[in-house]
C-alpha cells in the first residue's frame, strides 16, 4: 500500500495516521468517512471506530501509543456516523438492563459530553493491600486504633500574669542570676543583700539570710536537685550553702574565685561556680577540699552556666561573647581543654538552655549588641540556626511537654516571647514588665514560669499549659522488649 503524504507529514518515522472527527451534521460525517476510507484503502463495510480512525499497513510496526484496530468497534462507529444520529427515527425501546448497560458504556467511553467539567462523587475508599490480621506494625494498619491522631486544639496562652509580687531593691544587673525555683516548689530570690523564700504551694514567704556589706551583696542563687539545699554566691567570691528547711548555714566554699560569683549550676553533688575572674570551678560539696576541677577558657566574667540532662556536658557563656562546651572529665585533666568553642555571638552570652527532647541541642541568647537566639549541635559544634529577636536576650527556657522555647528580653521590649520550634514562629508575646526581664525560673511541673525584672516585680505566667493536661501529654515509659534483658543486669 502507498503511504499517503498526510501520513508522512504527521508521522515520518511510522506510517500511521490518526484522524479524529468531531462533526455535527450527518452529511459532513458521511463525506469525511468516504474520503478517509478512500485515502486509506479501506472498505466502508470494515469496522471503524466512532471517533478515532486508524490506518496501518500489514507487516509494518505499529506505534505503541496508538491502539490496535482489532480492539475497535468499527461497525458501531460506522452506524453512528451514517444512521445513529438521525433525529427523524424514534429510538427503539430498551429494557432496564440494556439501558443500564448503555449508560455505563457512555460514562466509560465519555460519550456523554455533558459530563465534562461536571461535579463527580468522591473517589472510592482505597482497599488494603495487606490484610489487617497479617500486619504486625501500625505503619501498615488502618484499624481505628492505629489511625492518625486527631489534631489537638490550640492551647490558650494567657497574656496576663497569674500573680504579681513586689520585689523591691532587686539588683538590675545583666551578669547576675538572682532567681530560682526549686523542686520543693519554693522560689528563692535575692533582693539587695537578703535572700527570701516564697512557698508557691501556700503563698507564704520567709527571710532566709541577710548578707552583711563586707561580703555582699548576693550575686547568685541556685537550688540543689533535692529542693532543700540552696547555694548563694556572694560579691566577695565566696559561696554559702544553706539548709532551707532548717534555716541553717551548712558551709562556706572559699579559695576558688578571686571576684564575685555570678553564676551557679548543680550536677548531683557537684556545684559548678562561674566568677568574674573568668574561672569555672567544680566543687564537691561532700568533701573538705571541695575544689575537684577547674575549667579555663573564658577571658572575661562567666555569666551563664548550664549542665546537660545527662550531667556529662557543661555549657558556659561569658562576657567575652563566647560559648564553651566542656566534658565533665576534662576538668580533671591537666590541659582543661574545651570540646567546642562557639564564637558567633557578638555580645555577652548569659541565656543558655539544653533541649529536653534532643539531648545534643543547645539554645543560646546574646546580649544587647547581638539580640539573637542561636541553636547548636554540641556533638559537632556546628550552628544549626540563628534568629534575630530584635532585643536583648536575657533568659531561655524550653517547654518540657511541647516543642516550644520561651525567651525573656531587655531593651527595647522587655517582653517574654514564646517560639514554636523548629520553625521559630512567634506563638505569643507576654508583656507587662517595664524594665528588662532579666531572670527566668520554671516551676517544678514545668508549666508556670516566674520572671523578675528591674521594675521590682516578680510575675508568674502560666505559659506552658495546665499541669493536668501536661501530665497526660507525657509519654508512657518504654518497655524493654529486648529478649533476656534481665541477663545483662549487674548484680
Question: Could you walk me through the main structural features you see in this protein, from its secondary elements to its overall organization?
Answer:
The protein is mainly beta and 491 residues long. It has two domains: 5-89, no CATH class; 163-473, YVTN repeat-like/Quinoprotein amine dehydrogenase (Methylamine Dehydrogenase, Chain H). Helix content is 11%, strand content 33%. It has a four-stranded antiparallel sheet with strand order 3-30-29-28, with no helix packed on it. Strands 4-5-6-7 form a four-stranded antiparallel sheet, with no helix packed on it. It has a four-stranded antiparallel sheet with strand order 8-9-10-11, with no helix packed on it. Helix 2 (26-40) runs antiparallel to helix 3 (74-84). It is elongated. The model is unreliable at 1-25, 47-62, 115-119, 136-146 and 476-491 (pLDDT under 50).
Amino acid at each position: 500500500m502507498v503511504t499517503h503524504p498526510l501520513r508522512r507529514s504527521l508521522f515520518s518515522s511510522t506510517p500511521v495516521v490518526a484522524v479524529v472527527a468531531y462533526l455535527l451534521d450527518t452529511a459532513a460525517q458521511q463525506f469525511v468517512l468516504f474520503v478517509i476510507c478512500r485515502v486509506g484503502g479501506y472498505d466502508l463495510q470494515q469496522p471503524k471506530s466512532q471517533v478515532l480512525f486508524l490506518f496501518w499497513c500489514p507487516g509494518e510496526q505499529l506505534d505503541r501509543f496508538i491502539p490496535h484496530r482489532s480492539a475497535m468497534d468499527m461497525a458501531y462507529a460506522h452506524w453512528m456516523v451514517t444512521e445513529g444520529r438521525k433525529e427523524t427515527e424514534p429510538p427503539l425501546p430498551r429494557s432496564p438492563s440494556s439501558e443500564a448497560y448503555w449508560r455505563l458504556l457512555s460514562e466509560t467511553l465519555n460519550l456523554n459530553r455533558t459530563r465534562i467539567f461536571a461535579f463527580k462523587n468522591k473517589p472510592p475508599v482505597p482497599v488494603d493491600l495487606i490484610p489487617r490480621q497479617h500486619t504486625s506494625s501500625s505503619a501498615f494498619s488502618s484499624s481505628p486504633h492505629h489511625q492518625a491522631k486527631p489534631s489537638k486544639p490550640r492551647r490558650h496562652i494567657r497574656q496576663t500574669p497569674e500573680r504579681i509580687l513586689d520585689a523591691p531593691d532587686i539588683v538590675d544587673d545583666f551578669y547576675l542570676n538572682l532567681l530560682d525555683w526549686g523542686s520543693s516548689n519554693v522560689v528563692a530570690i535575692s533582693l539587695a543583700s537578703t535572700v527570701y523564700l516564697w512557698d508557691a504551694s501556700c503563698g507564704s514567704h520567709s527571710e532566709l539570710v541577710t548578707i552583711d556589706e563586707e561580703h555582699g551583696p548576693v550575686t547568685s542563687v541556685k537550688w540543689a536537685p533535692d529542693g532543700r539545699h540552696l547555694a548563694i554566691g556572694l560579691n566577695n567570691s565566696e559561696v554559702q550553702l544553706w539548709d532551707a528547711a532548717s534555716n541553717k548555714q551548712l558551709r562556706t566554699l572559699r579559695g576558688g574565685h578571686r571576684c564575685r560569683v555570678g553564676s551557679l549550676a548543680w550536677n548531683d553533688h557537684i556545684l559548678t561556680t562561674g566568677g568574674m575572674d573568668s574561672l569555672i570551678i567544680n566543687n564537691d560539696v561532700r568533701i573538705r577540699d571541695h575544689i575537684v576541677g577547674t575549667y579555663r577558657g573564658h577571658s572575661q566574667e562567666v555569666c551563664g552556666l548550664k549542665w546537660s540532662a545527662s550531667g556529662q556536658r557543661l555549657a558556659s557563656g561569658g562576657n567575652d561573647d563566647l560559648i564553651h562546651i566542656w566534658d565533665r572529665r576534662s576538668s580533671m585533666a591537666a590541659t582543661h581543654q574545651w570540646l567546642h568553642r562557639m564564637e558567633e555571638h557578638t555580645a555577652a552570652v548569659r541565656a543558655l538552655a539544653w533541649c529536653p527532647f534532643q539531648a545534643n541541642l543547645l539554645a543560646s541568647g546574646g546580649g544587647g549588641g547581638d539580640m539573637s537566639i542561636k541553636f547548636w549541635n554540641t556533638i559537632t559544634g556546628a550552628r544549626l540556626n540563628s534568629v534575630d529577636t530584635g532585643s536583648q536576650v536575657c533568659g531561655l527556657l524550653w517547654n518540657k511537654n511541647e516543642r516550644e522555647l520561651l525567651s525573656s528580653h531587655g531593651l527595647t521590649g522587655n517582653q517574654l516571647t514564646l517560639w514554636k520550634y523548629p520553625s521559630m514562629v512567634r506563638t505569643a508575646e507576654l508583656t507587662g514588665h517595664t524594665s528588662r526581664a532579666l531572670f527566668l525560673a520554671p516551676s517544678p511541673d514545668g508549666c508556670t514560669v516566674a520572671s523578675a525584672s528591674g521594675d521590682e516585680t516578680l510575675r508568674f505566667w502560666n505559659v506552658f499549659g495546665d499541669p493536668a493536661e501536661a501530665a497526660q501529654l507525657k509519654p508512657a515509659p518504654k518497655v524493654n522488649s529486648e529478649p533476656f534483658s534481665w541477663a545483662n543486669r549487674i548484680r
